[in-house]
Specification:
About 70% of the residues lie in helices and about 0% in strands. With about 350 residues, it is mainly alpha-helical. The protein has a domain of about 120 residues. The longest helix is centred in the first third of the chain and has 17 residues. It starts with a helix and ends in an 8-residue tail after the last helix.
């Protein structure tokens, strides 16, 4: 056996001696400081440098962190009370220290072992255990070195989605936040999109807790940077849901951003007239005090009209009655001014018989 064979053996989840096969009654490794001192003296006499221990900011070695975290993971196969105690400690450790989050990711099969209690029984049976485990997943997802492995793990994303559908308010918020954090990695956007998360996220956006709704909107926005995910959201009816929420003054800036992301697709444009998009966006531009909100509205209108000039007549009627774009051209932020000017020019060219003034 070569070092660090024993640590590796235990990190694999083995609880027996590799030679005698006897069950180990105690599996936490304790550093032998006396032997280390003897080795240091021997090396010093012979002019040999002693390798430095890998240490975290608290002064503990990374190996010590891994061993302790691994001992907690082993409790995920123990009786329920031990699982709950270990889950709470894992949640605390991964929240408190970045080095613990990094060390956790170095343990073989760590994420599947962490979520084993939720995989083996009905997820809603023990809400306190579910809450601690999902919060731990959120903590771990903030470490960039963990994101890819978590996305590729067959357990993590399905259980996050299930926790969004069935959990305490705290669990729902944390599960949604974890999905958002994982979508910061491009490869995870495809994986999450294929897992039907879009259905769950849209339902949460429609009728969830206000804090969870915002996390859902941010997650949807990240997912919609991928073409396939845009199509998925359009096909399940995201546009009318989003527009209704905008009409109700809910998460207006976030949702207008998503609306702009979806507006260039032909399937989306076909739905816009059915959901009375143009009057809604003009009304927002007239009454909103936010420059970025007005900018998003005029950008959406510009995208839609560049794809389908039939909308220009509807814009002309609105503009003739209210001069909304003319006002925006005078008082809006720079990009909004340019798009308003471009739309007015397009209306004049397409419908010269209508008098559009600035």
């Amino acid at each position: 056996m070569r070092p660090p064979y024993i640590a590796y053996w235990l990190n694999q989840g083995n609880l027996t001696c590799p030679r005698s096969k006897e069950v180990l009654s105690y599996s936490t490794l304790t550093p032998n400081c006396l032997v280390r001192e003897l080795i240091s003296r021997w090396c010093g006499v012979r002019g040999i440098a002693v390798p430095e221990s890998r240490q975290n900011i608290s002064g503990k070695t990374i190996d010590e962190d891994i061993n302790y975290l691994n001992s907690l993971l082993r409790k995920m196969s123990s009786p329920l009370s031990d699982r709950k105690e270990a889950a709470k400690e894992l949640m605390r450790l991964t929240k408190a220290s970045p080095s613990n989050r990094t060390a956790f990711g170095q343990i073989p099969n760590a994420f599947s072992r962490l979520l084993r209690p939720l995989s083996e029984s009905k997820i809603e049976l023990h809400p306190d255990l579910q809450e601690d485990l999902i919060r731990t997943v959120l903590n771990l997802s903030t470490d960039d070195s963990n994101k890819a492995e978590m996305g590729e793990n067959p357990v993590v994303i399905p259980l996050l989605i299930e926790s969004v559908k069935c959990g305490t308010i705290e669990t729902i918020i944390n599960a949604t936040a974890a999905l958002y954090t994982l979508t910061q990695l491009d490869s995870n956007k495809l994986i999450i999109g294929k897992s039907r998360a879009h259905v769950t996220l849209l339902e949460l956006l429609r009728s969830g807790h206000p804090l969870a709704m915002r996390e859902a909107a941010l997650t949807i926005s990240n997912l919609c940077t991928v073409h396939e995910n845009k199509i998925r959201f359009i096909e399940i009816g995201a546009l009318p849901v989003i527009l209704q929420m905008i009409n109700d003054s809910m998460l207006v800036d976030e949702l207008l951003g998503i609306f702009a992301q979806l507006s260039a697709y032909s399937n989306a444009i076909e739905q816009f007239r059915e959901i009375y998009m143009v009057p809604c966006l003009f009304r927002i531009m007239r009454y909103s005090y936010s420059g970025s909100t007005k900018e998003n509205c005029v950008v959406i209108l510009f995208i839609v009209c560049s794809k389908n000039e039939a909308f220009l007549r509807e814009l002309c009627i609105e503009e003739t009655n209210n001069r909304t774009l003319a006002e925006l051209e005078d008082t809006g932020i720079e990009r909004a001014k340019r798009k308003a000017f471009d739309l007015i020019l397009a209306m004049r060219r397409a419908l010269p018989s209508l008098r559009i003034t600035t």
